[in-house]
Amino acid sequence: MLFRQCLEARKTSLGETHPDTLITINYLSLVLYNQDKCAEAEKLLRECVEKTEKVLGKDHPDTLNAKKGLEILQEELNSVRMFG
Question: Would you list the DSSP string of 48-76?
């Protein structure tokens, strides 16, 4: 998958916590969510939120965007668990 390759390249060249790397993690999680790989998407979004908060702060737009994505994903997962 192209996003995975991009993420690995960014981790190698920019580092694990560079803002561009974190944005790529966020985008990859959206792709995974759209492929119904919700558990993997949730794991990546949690990582993204944690690292983005540390690097950019909890009120930065990228942090807020990642948090919102995680909230939406968790609501979706809860609905699936609740209603099968």
Answer: HHHHHHHHH-TTSHHHHHHHHHHHHHHHH
Residues in CB range of 31: below 8 A, 6 or more apart = 1, 3
- Which position has the token pair 């985008």? 27
Confirm whether pTM is higher than 0.70: yes
Instruction: Provide the token pair at 12.
Output: 């190698």
**77/3 Cα distance (integer angstroms):** 23
Buried b (16+ CB within 10 A) or exposed e, 55-76: bbeeeeebbeebbebbeebeee
In angstroms, the Cα distances linking 83 to 18, 42, 77, 78 are: 39, 19, 10, 8
Structure tokens, 71:
């909230």
For residues 23 and 62, is the Cβ–Cβ distance under 8 A? yes
Q: What residues in the chain have per-residue pLDDT under 70? A: 80-84
